[in-house]
Amino acid sequence: MRALTYLGPWNVELREVPDLHVVGDDDVVVEVKFCGICGTDLGIVSGTYPVAVPGVTLGHEASGVVAEIGPAVTEVRVGDRVVINPTPFCGRCRMCRTQRINHCVNKHGTESGVSYDGAFAGRYRTTSAFVHVVPDHISLEAAALTEPLSCVLAGVRKIRPPSLSAFTYVFGAGPLGLLYAWALSLSGLTPVVVERSPARLEFARDRLPTGTRAYASLDEARSAFFGDPKAPLDVVVDTTSVMLEPLFPELACGGTFMSIGLKRQRASIDTMLLADRSLSVIGSIDSLHGSFVEAFHLVTSGRIPTGRLVTHVLPLDDHRKGFAALGCDIAGQAMGSTDEASCKVLLTPGDGDG
Ligand SMILES: [Zn+2]
Ligand SMILES: [Zn+2]
Questions:
Q1: Span from the CA of 320 to the centroid of ligand 1 (angstroms)
Q2: What's the topology of domain 2-150+287-348?
Q3: Which CATH code is given to the segment(s) 152-283?
Q4: pTM for the model
Q5: 3-state secondary structure the chain
Q6: How many whole angstroms from 103 Cα to the centroid of ligand 1?
C-alpha cells in the first residue's frame, strides 16, 4: 500500500510500504477512504509544529471501511463503514484517571499520524475501541470531520462564559473556526467569526449556524453584529495563533482567551491585568473523555453539518495540491495565505467511494 511519509520539514514522500494486517486479537484494520488535512499537518510539514517522528505516516482525521478484524472483535464487522478515533489512551494512568486522556502518559506521544503511523495510507490499524460504525445516512466525508469536532468540543468544555449573552468571537474561518462557531452556538452562545481572507469569508458566510455571522475584521464585527464599535471581548477563540498579544489588553473583565493554533508564536502580556481583570488565557488540544462520542453524535444526528465544510476531495497522489489549497507550498517550501476558498481538504488514500 502507499503511505504519505514524513521525513522532515518540507520533506514528505508518497512511499510504497507493507500492507497492514491484523496482529492482535482486538485489532481492526481499516481501508481508509477519506482523511482530512489538518492544521497540525501543515505545522508538521512546514516545521512550525516540530513533533512528528521522522518515518511516520501522516494523517489523523479519517474514515473508511473495515477490511480485517481480530478474533476477539465483536463490535464491528468486515465491510462496516467506520470513523477512526486517532487518539489512543490507556484509561489507567494518572492523566486518564483525572479526566485528561489527551495527555495520557502511555500513548507514546500525541496521536496517530504524528507520533505513530496515521491514515494518509491505504490501510490503518487500530483496536476496536477506536472505531465507530457510521450510519448509512451519513457520508464518510462528513464522518471524517468527527476528530476535529471532538477537539473543538474538548475546547468548548473548558470555556466558562460569564453568561450566555457573552460577546463571543472566533478568529479564523478554517475548519476549526467554523466548528467552534457551531459548537459554541450549540452551547448557547452566539459567536461572531472574523476572517481576513475574502475567499474563506465568502465560503464561511453560507455555512454558519443560525444567528451567527462572519466579518472581515474585528471592527466590522463589533459595529455590525453587536452595534457597538467598542463591544466587549468576553470570550475569544483564536485559531490563528497571532491574536493574543493585540487583544489581551482589550479583554473584558472576567474574559476568556482560548488559543488553539499549533503555531510557534510568542506573545507578551501584562500579568497584572491577568489578575486585576480576572482573565483566563487557556489552550486546548485533542479530545477529552467522551468528546469523540459527543462529536460523533453531533455529526450523525446532523446537528452539525460537517460535510458542508469540505471544499476539496483529492487522491493521495495530489496531496501537494491539497496542501497548497491550504497555503502550504511543499515544493516551494513556503507557508502563506491562499486565495482559494479552502476549508476542509480531504485526501482519498483508497478509492474514496465509501
Ligand atoms: Zn487534526
Ligand atoms: Zn493514560
A1: 18
A2: Quinone Oxidoreductase; Chain A, domain 1 (3.90.180)
A3: 3.40.50.720
A4: 0.94
A5: CEEEEEEECCEEEEEECCCCCCCCCCEEEEEEEEEEECHHHHHHHHCCCCCCCCCCECCCEEEEEEEEECCCCCCCCCCCEEEECCCCCCCCCHHHHCCCHHHCCCCCCCCECCCECCCCECEEEEEHHHEEECCCCCCHHHHCCHHHHHHHHHHHHHCCCCCCCCEEEEECCCHHHHHHHHHHHHCCCEEEEECCCHHHHHHHHCCCCCCCEEECCHHHHHHHHHCCCCCCEEEEEECCCCCHHHHHHHEEEEEEEEECCCCCCCCCCCHHHHHHCCCEEEECCCCCCCHHHHHHHHHHCCCCCHHHHEEEEEEHHHHHHHHHHCCEECCCCEECCCCCCCCEEEEECCCCCC
A6: 16
